[in-house]
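thread: overnight batch results

M.L. [08:02]
morning all. the overnight job finished for the chain we discussed friday. pasting input first so we're all looking at the same thing
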Amino acid sequence: MEPLSNLKQLQHLYLDNNHIVDVAPLASLKNLRTLSLSKNPIEDISPLANLKNLDSLYLDYTNISDITALKGLVNLEDLVLNFTAVTDLSPLKDLPLERLFIFGLKTENLELLPQEVQERAEVTLKDEASFGDYTVRVWSGSWVYGYFEILKNGERVYLQEGGVFHIGWDNKYHPDEGAPVLRIGEDITGRGIPNLVIVEWTGGAHCCMFIYLFELGEEARLLTDLFLGHNDTFYFTDMTKDPGLELVAYDTSWAYWRASFASSPAPQMVLRLDDDNKWVFCDEAMRKPEPDGLELLAILEAVSSKIEEMNNPHHVIEPFWDELLELIYSGHARLAWRVLDLAWPSTVPGKDEFVQDFIRMLLNNPFLEDLERLNDGQLLPSL
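M.L. [08:03]
and the structure it wrote out:
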């Protein structure tokens, strides 16, 4: 860290998870406004007392217990102390704090801080569930921010911060009435080991959902996580003869492409967990028969009509690629390209530009490898 002491004009510095013990070399960086020291085994932060320009300081997951050095940081607005050994918050009472995070702490003197800071700082136990030796707890703050922890025989073995977490999944979007709720301990993978599903919502309009899948065997083990974008209508079901459940979800990576969010297609996906604990397309469940003559004619007419009616090809009210994606996500990409070629009216410009842009979207799709396999390596047209 010593070379950093010469960077006197530095304003923002992020040193997370770097095995830092001694922060003395940072004492000369008096122009710093943002400093992040998260996940370092730091115990003494007294050298930070000189950093009077700091407005954001991240000390979570460090070994600090004494924050007296912070009482003179007259510009400090954001402070993160999650999962430290801090108990006494009185050194913060005269600071202009707007946001304080103290997850996992048992503190004293929080009442000395402004009421709005107190409300944002505290978390409450939102949910708890147990199975065998394991207990899962979800904690939430007043913002869209919280954490969950897994305990085995009362000792924490896993911890994760983020947005709003849920234990299990109610499967309410399953098409069959009375579909089973996925509670802690269900065997989702079919491997004979109890599982745990945690669902996270990160907050914000149209975003974002994550699924975390754990095994609760001799040890609690995160098998995999999956980013689903704005996709809270997913459900688990058994669609094949293979062990375990499949996950039915929707590909929201097409959101906002040449259309509003509400108008954007979201093709259905059926995912399975492979041997490497990765969610991949379940080709068996996604492949569908090729449309017959009448069905194909209806698709051609629908696509052609939508193309003729669009006013702005970059902001379409009724996306004509919805039908194309249904074909592609059922294993008929070659047919989708033929439909587009035949359906595009010769009087409507922009076909070549659309094709190139559509190809770009496919190539950037998070499930590109699966789409190529589903379509037998013929996902893209021969140009």
